[in-house]
Write a structure and sequence with these properties.
Blueprint (H helix, E strand, L loop, with lengths): L4 H10 L16 E2 L5 E5 L4 H6 L6 H12 L8 E4 L13 H18 L3 E5 L1 H8 L5 H4 L4 E3 L2 E6 L2 H6 L4 H19 L1
Parallel strand pairs: 2-3, 2-4, 4-6
Antiparallel strand pairs: 1-3, 5-6
Bound molecules: uracil (URA).
The site of uracil has 13 residues, from helix 3.
């Protein structure tokens, strides 16, 4: 039987499956429309997210909000979460054992939201959702269909802040997402 949101949030709040929870201020389970057609997955909370308990609220998150607005979506319409729900120290990439420990929560989020399209933001989301050999520069911009969901890998917004020249490709990826959502609306 499917888990409820309350039970999932209770499990995340109580989780001690890896060491990350020892050094955080807040867990960051994710937020947004619980029945969104579009779900977004990042890597893990940063400092602003750890302080607020909300995903993507810092600089990268503000860029993400503008990117969504460009495809006429508000943050309230989509569901936004991360591979890991606790901030890795100094914003390092989550270790494989940390990501693996947290993945069951992401899978439960897929099952509850039942999105049509998932935007994978950056290499960590791509790797843990699509597989170990994922490379963002090679694989971004092409839909992968798995278990009835369309996955679009693209750059992480933090990468776009570091290198503005990537924005053109990210915009092309977003336009494909917009077209797919329109096609699936039917
Ligand atoms: N980067 C991420 O991957 N996730 C957040 O929530 C914030 C920054």
């Amino acid at each position: 039987m499917e888990i409820s949101w309350d039970e999932l949030n209770r499990q995340i709040a109580a989780c001690e499956k890896c060491g990350l929870c020892r050094q955080i201020r807040h867990k960051v389970p994710g937020q947004g429309n619980p029945h969104a057609s579009l779900m977004l997955i990042g890597e893990g909370p940063g400092r602003d997210e750890d302080e607020s308990g909300l995903a993507f609220v810092g600089r990268a998150g503000q860029l993400l909000t503008r990117m969504l607005a460009a495809i006429r979506l508000s943050r309230e319409e989509v569901y936004i979460c991360n591979v890991v729900k606790c901030r890795p120290p100094d914003n390092r990439t989550p270790m494989p054992e940390e990501a693996e420990a947290c993945l069951p929560y992401l899978r439960m989020q897929f099952a509850l939201v039942r999105p049509k399209v998932i935007l994978l933001l950056g290499a960590t989301a791509g790797r843990y959702v699509l597989g170990d050999d994922f490379r963002v520069t090679r694989d971004r911009g092409r839909f992968v269909q798995k278990g009835g969901i369309w996955f679009m890998p693209t750059y992480h917004p933090a990468a776009l802040l570091r290198d503005e020249s990537k924005k053109r490709e990210a915009w092309a990826d977003l336009k494909q997402v917009m077209a797919k959502l329109d096609e699936l609306k039917g």
